[in-house]
Design goal:
There is one protein chain. The two termini are 31 Å apart. This protein has nine helices and nine strands. By secondary structure, it is of the alpha/beta class.
């Protein structure tokens, strides 16, 4: 059963067409990885899916679906006068201490972090806080724009394990932008190869041939030197 269907999606900025004729479906409970080189339109696609950017075509979500979105990064100065607890308080809506502790447990953070300054915690911890913020509303779908940007290799593995834990225990559908093929092969049920248009879509081990990756990234060297959007 599809939770998302995208048909003939195109995005233009002025006379520059960033995405053209994108078509794919996401099944409920699936993990879709979106891969592609720098400037391929991956972030633009995510933002289009949740209505943050105008587009042509059809983006059809299942009725009453709840969506959480985690941006690539949140740049915070170390001296920002805001604790993690106060950051959660900005969400409003009668958020209780018990619910905050619950979502912190989901992302494997100790509640002592609530007393720390938002600018004092590590980038990896900050990313987990953003994920916790996104699951407060009990979403059906979580969208992640490069969840391990600026995080070291050890931290990246920890973040991906956390995402898998969320998907498994909360029954979430996950759509994520990634440049890590190991993650795509291990955790994604489907992969969308994107470079302004759809170059491939399907089960990773069936569609990610060496020839496909060379076509997508312009050669092995281009792939390994890929920088984040």
């Amino acid at each position: 059963m599809s939770i998302l269907e995208v048909r003939k999606l195109s995005v233009e900025f002025g006379h520059n067409r960033v995405l053209e004729d994108i078509n794919f479906e996401v099944e409920r409970g699936a993990v879709l990885a979106i891969i592609g080189p720098n400037g391929a339109g991956k972030t633009v696609l995510l933002k289009s899916l949740i209505g943050l950017l105008p587009y042509n075509g059809v983006v059809q979500w299942a009725p009453d679906v709840r969506i959480g979105y985690v941006p690539q990064r949140m740049d915070i100065e170390t001296d920002v006068p805001l604790t993690v607890r106060e950051f959660f308080g900005l969400r409003g809506g009668g958020l209780t201490p018990d619910r905050i502790r619950e979502v912190l447990e989901f992302v494997q953070l100790d509640e002592h972090i609530l007393n720390a300054g938002l600018g004092e915690i590590s980038i990896g911890q900050r990313q987990r806080v953003l994920v916790a913020w996104s699951v407060i509303g009990s979403p059906d779908v979580l969208l992640f724009d490069e969840p391990t940007a600026d995080i070291d290799v050890t931290g990246q593995e920890s973040i991906y394990k956390m995402l898998y834990h969320l998907q498994k225990n909360l029954g979430l559908t996950i759509i994520l932008v990634s440049h890590d093929l190991n993650v795509v092969y291990r955790h994604a049920t489907s992969v969308l190869c994107l470079n302004r248009s759809k170059l491939c879509f399907g089960v990773p081990r069936e569609v990610l041939s060496s020839e496909q990756l060379l076509s997508l990234y312009g050669g092995e060297k281009a792939f390994f030197e890929h920088k984040h959007d």
